[in-house]
Specification:
Layout (H helix, E strand, L loop, with lengths): L1 H5 L4 H23 L3 H19 L3 H10 L1 E4 L2 E4 H30 L6 H26 L7 H15 L1 H16 L7 E4 L2 E8 L3 E6 L4 E5 H6 L3 E2 L7 E9 L5 H13 L11 E7 L4 E9 L7 H17 L33 H6 L7
Antiparallel strand pairs: 1-2, 3-4, 3-7, 4-5, 5-6, 8-10, 9-10
Helix pairs in contact: 2-3, 5-6, 6-8, 10-11
Amino acid sequence: MFAAIGAGWPSRLLESVVSLLTAWVVIRFASSFVRDPGWSRTLAVIAWSVAALNLVGLLKPTISILESMGFSLGDVRLSVLGVIKAGLVLIILLWLAGAISRITEHRLDSSKSLSPSARVLLGKFIKVTLIVIAILAALESIGIDLTALAVFGGAIGLGIGFGLQKVISNLISGVILLMDKSVKPGDVIAINDTFGWINRLSARYVSVITRDGIEHLIPNEDLISQRVENWSYSNSLIRMRLPIGISYESDVPLAMTLAVEAADSVERALKNPAPVCRLMNFGPDSVELELRVWINDPKLGVANVRSDVLLNVWELYHEHGIEFPFAQRDLHIKSSVPLEVSLVDRVEPVPDPDADQQHEIPEER
């Protein structure tokens, strides 16, 4: 630029070139670091608008007009230009806070010394802290005294506390869940009718994915106030109970041995503890057995193991003549009760003379 001035180039032309280059650099920077297409497009429009105003010589008058437009709030004067600057500062600082929090969470996830709950808790705490710092810095940039926000913030906090009780309750419940480590990502839980594994913990909800691929967003408060079955809290061992019914004519000891053999042939069934089969009851239609199988990977599903074991039981029982009974009912008819039979004389109907006259067909003339 200085070389061009020394060569006698017009200063107006140089200012135009510098404005266009600055806008191009800003747009390239936005497209390289800002992945969101909406924010990138917004920054590009702002950069080209500033460059266009500078080219036509309207940048300084526009700045003066925006500075003159404003209002006073106590001892602080807020202008349109100040609000725009604060907005730009807030956008940049929020982007920086998000980038730093993502880098921090990635480092925390790779740490082996921290538990999954502690990683999530530290990551959320750092993210919230950076966002608060960004908002306070944006307010400070337009000249707002932050000490004056103490009383005003207390009044607003009281109103928000009544209006957002559920939200605040979920936030506090989320912190409690992270601190007491009752649930963590990867745990297999059952709450109400929802059964699945925890995908991630959020500030307001817990993401639970079922075997159907449906992701349930369960509020944190429900995991605090309701009964939750955590299948992998202390360990991942799960015992499955499979009821089996056989007919009374079948060999019961053989049926029990074959049931254990059917469970042993399934790959996911543990050998220690080993499967066992117990005689539970003499039912009205069948001899009731119960096959008990242990697994240590409930995240991979339970119904598929049950299906494989029962299919093996079906095949082995048919090979060895073990019958599955049908529901049976005995019907007894009491034939000793005499039936009374009587004859009734048939009464001839009396003809109605009026009826004959009504149905009399007139003769043809």
